[in-house]
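Researcher: Structure for this, please.
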Amino acid sequence: MANITAADVNKLRQTTGAGMMDCKKALVEAEGDFDKAIQILREKGQKVAANRSDRDSSEGAAVAFVNADNTKGAIITLNCETDFVGKNEAFVALAKELVEKAINFNTKEDFLASAYNDTMTVAEKLVEQTGVIGEKIEIGGFEILEGAFVGAYVHVNKIAALTAIASAVNNAEVLTKDVSMQVASMGADTLSYKDFDPAFVASETAARIAVIEKDNEEFARLGKTLKNVPQYISYSQITPEVLAKAEEDAKAELKAEGKPEQIWDKIIPGKIARFISDNTTLDQEKALLDQNFIKDESKKVADYVASFNTEIVGFKRVTLG
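Model: Predicted structure, token format:
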């Protein structure tokens, strides 16, 4: 029988990340052959991975990495099965190690196929860790973003976001972190309402109105206050003619209420602002620049960005679940 020393076990642990007892058993089985022990641990991981391939891996860690000159960033989620593992320091450290490697690749597939170290690929490392930890381990979200300046934000290791701006302006780090926080918190599918396809807006309008009208039927039955049924859901539908009619309607309402005409000019702007807010819900949900800024809801994200004299050129988001 080979003489297995503590130094041998520690070397295998450092190479593979496996537990002390697993490393010792592998070395004993391999009769001290280091490479064979690595293969034994890898095969164990493959067996565990095969047995757990159908498991849900919605927990884990979302992490971000931006290069030294802030021109490129990467965000990934390293997924596992339980929150207990996802919060483990060694697991989070592995996620951070992987995202630093991920920044060198443009696709998840290329990243997984790349070398983790001299003995295995990233994909093989994940299989190995599946055996070590005993849970399904995989890369879930994977996004890369480049720009004149890129910043990141991570929310409690559950959501990670990147934002790229057109120029490296003063306080670019503050701006990109704030907007990335907005992206992480509120989500967005596109930059502006101007990016929406008209057919999509029309379909969404009909669907949302139908849902509200159905809800109102139940509210009416229960004697509850009815929801406002919007005419529109995006600023892309609010033409000059629509705004003109909204203003006429506001004037008619003020007249019916008996408000003196000389104060209408002070009231109407607020009513128009409310009309626009009530009829741009799609923009507020899905268009980043048209959302209310979470750190100052009196302004839109677009207004906040404009105060830095630059533009957002891209954003990315990954989340667990």
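Researcher: Any notable elements?
Model: The longest strand covers residues 72-80. DSSP finds 13 helices and eight strands in the chain.
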